């Protein structure tokens, strides 16, 4: 196993980093890729790893649905490059499109034969797929008019740059969503082999953070294009209740775990002094608890109310998930704001004590900094901003999907009863 790990890690260094030294990225000496590789080595060195097979399955029972909360992000106790959950999100999208391809919301939305062929071959290989929450942009910022995709008879040619999480270094496939110039919604969906020689991955100082993927005229044949320039179809594949339920469920599970970690840290900081010195502190902490428990309850409700599709897939209930997405943003922002404020108050309250404090206190402060002011903290904010959409969009989705008629009928019965009296 060690020899395999060293061989594969060396292959990534030679094939994916060397060009970086001449393209403005971080050189190999600045990146501890061996450590990050070993954190996920149990998956990367084992083509038959159970998580690879599980990534291609859509749950058919509540036990399977609950188990799917883990995924690649659970590797090494959540300390690998897959901890961000983006690879799990990509696989959830693909599994949903495949399992529900005959669902009325998805039928005809993508090239089903192409998806079936790719899915069968990739599942057999156990290919690891990831995606990006960021659009593809022109390689040269000064040439924004340059198209990132040129469509030809054989397929499309992709030229541009895209920010990924560092799991892209170890992925086999990239799920790429392409926008029209100036558009907010993707119009094309393609699957790109990550080992294409015309792809360059530029690393950043922290391998557990971001990488810059550069597409240098990458040729993508039509058999790898699932949707060709249709904003309506892509919007349905990403946002229709049936298609988005499973990806949203797994993404929320990951975000809930992050929120629980932040809340635990917040309580530890509060107990250092703010809790007993500021009368409003307990009330604010109660609000943070309420937000956390609301998201947790709604995620549980999506499991309990899950509906079985005609194909046998157990689809999490969309409405509780939409409500959870809307509840998560305020809960996240409040917890982050309190964590910043309470930790600052703790440090200002007794600066001399901190200078001679315990190692436990120093470790707690370092951890707070990593949660609130680090690159990973910025990544969490991006997750909230790009994955859940803005508050107005979330509100529209909830209202559109809510069963209003039973409540309106209750109102009518009330007035009919009182009118009769």
UniProtKB/TrEMBL annotation:
Disordered: annotated span: 1-33
Family annotation (InterPro entries): AcylCo_DH-like_C, AcylCoA_DH/oxidase_NM_dom_sf, HpaB/PvcC/4-BUDH, HpaB/PvcC/4-BUDH_C
HpaB/PvcC/4-BUDH C-terminal domain: from which residue to which, for each copy? 245-351
Q: Which PANTHER family match?
A: 4-HYDROXYPHENYLACETATE 3-MONOOXYGENASE-RELATED
Please report a single Pfam family linked to this protein: HpaB
- Recorded source organism is Paenibacillus hodogayensis
Record protein name field: 4-hydroxyphenylacetate 3-hydroxylase C-terminal domain-containing protein
């Amino acid at each position: 196993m060690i020899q395999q790990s060293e061989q594969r890690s060396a292959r990534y260094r030679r094939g994916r980093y060397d060009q970086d030294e001449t393209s403005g990225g971080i050189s190999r000496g600045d990146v501890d890729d061996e450590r990050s590789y070993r954190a996920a080595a149990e998956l990367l060195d084992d083509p038959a790893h159970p998580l690879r097979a599980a990534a291609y399955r859509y749950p058919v029972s509540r036990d399977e649905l609950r188990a799917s909360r883990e995924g690649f992000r659970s590797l090494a106790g959540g300390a690998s490059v897959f901890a961000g959950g983006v690879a799990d999100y990509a696989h959830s999208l693909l599994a949903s499109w495949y399992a529900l391809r005959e669902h009325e919301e998805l039928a005809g939305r993508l090239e089903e034969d192409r998806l079936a062929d790719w899915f069968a071959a990739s599942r057999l290989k156990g290919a690891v797929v990831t995606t990006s929450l960021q659009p593809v942009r022109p390689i040269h910022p000064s040439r924004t008019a340059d198209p990132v995709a040129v469509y030809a008879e054989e397929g499309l040619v992709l030229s541009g740059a895209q920010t990924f999480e560092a799991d892209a270094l170890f992925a086999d496939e990239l799920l790429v969503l392409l926008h029209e110039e100036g558009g907010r919604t993707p119009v094309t969906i393609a699957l790109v082999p990550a080992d294409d020689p015309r792809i360059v991955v530029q690393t950043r100082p922290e391998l557990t953070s971001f990488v810059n993927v550069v597409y240098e005229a990458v040729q993508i044949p039509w058999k790898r294009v699932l949707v060709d320039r249709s904003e309506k179809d892509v919007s349905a594949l990403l946002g229709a209740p049936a298609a988005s339920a499973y990806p949203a469920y797994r993404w929320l599970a990951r975000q809930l775990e992050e929120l629980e970690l932040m809340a635990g840290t917040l309580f530890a900081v509060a107990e250092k002094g703010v809790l007993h010195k500021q009368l409003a502190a307990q009330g604010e902490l109660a609000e943070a608890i309420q937000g956390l428990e609301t998201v947790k309850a709604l995620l549980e409700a999506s499991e309990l109310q899950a509906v079985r599709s005609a194909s046998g897939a157990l689809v999490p209930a969309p409405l509780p998930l939409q409500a959870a997405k809307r509840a998560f943003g305020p809960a996240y922002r409040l917890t982050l704001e309190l964590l910043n404020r309470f930790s600052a108050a703790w440090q200002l309250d007794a600066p001399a004590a901190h200078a001679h404090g315990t190692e436990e206190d120093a470790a707690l402060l370092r951890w707070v900094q990593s949660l609130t002011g680090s690159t990973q903290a910025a990544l969490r904010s991006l997750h909230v901003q790009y994955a859940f959409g803005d508050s107005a969009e979330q509100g529209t989705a909830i209202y559109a999907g809510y069963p209003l008629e039973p409540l309106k009928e209750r109102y009518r019965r009330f007035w009919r009863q009182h009118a009769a009296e």
